[in-house]
Design brief:
The chain is an alpha/beta fold. It contains five helices and five strands.
């Protein structure tokens, strides 16, 4: 069974987003194993210092990951499903899980972007880092239903 880890910076504070996140994590359970790793958000007004501290915490958790960034490559939903399947097959022998990284409110340090195995965008629009969590989970669910031939994507 495919394993996916999502590393995100900070806690989800919006209750409506937390409910949606829980819903999609539950829907994904029969299709793949998804786990969430919460990276502690660095507090303070210095953006560079915050991103650097969060970068250290991210690299302690994963060395091979796909970064979500508005400047990344965009996919159709079927294209995203194929992308995930290809990444899963590539990582199967290495570590057995596909890791996604979502930065915090200030984004991520340049080193995180540079070390990513791929950088993808959910849209050219900017979303809050908390909204991206829910959108990614919905797209993962859509991708899994596409790969498994289930009716969800029209």
């Amino acid at each position: 069974m495919m394993r996916i880890r999502i590393l995100w910076v900070g806690r989800t504070r919006e209750r409506c987003l937390e409910e949606g996140i829980s819903r999609y994590l539950m829907l994904l359970q029969p299709l793949c194993r998804v786990s969430v790793v919460e990276i502690r958000e660095e507090k303070g007004k210095d953006r560079e210092r915050s991103r650097a501290a969060e970068a250290e915490r991210i690299v302690k958790q994963t060395a091979s990951y796909i970064l979500l960034d508005e400047r990344g490559k965009e996919f159709s939903s079927p294209g995203f499903a194929r992308f995930i399947q290809e990444r899963w097959q590539e990582t199967l022998q290495e570590k057995g899980a596909v890791d996604f990284v979502i930065g915090g409110p200030f984004g991520v340090a340049d080193e995180i972007r540079e070390k990513a195995t791929a950088v993808i965008a959910l849209s050219r629009m900017t979303f809050t880092h908390e909204m991206v969590r829910l959108i990614l989970l919905e797209q993962l669910y859509r991708a899994m239903t596409i790969l498994k031939g289930k009716e969800y994507h029209h």
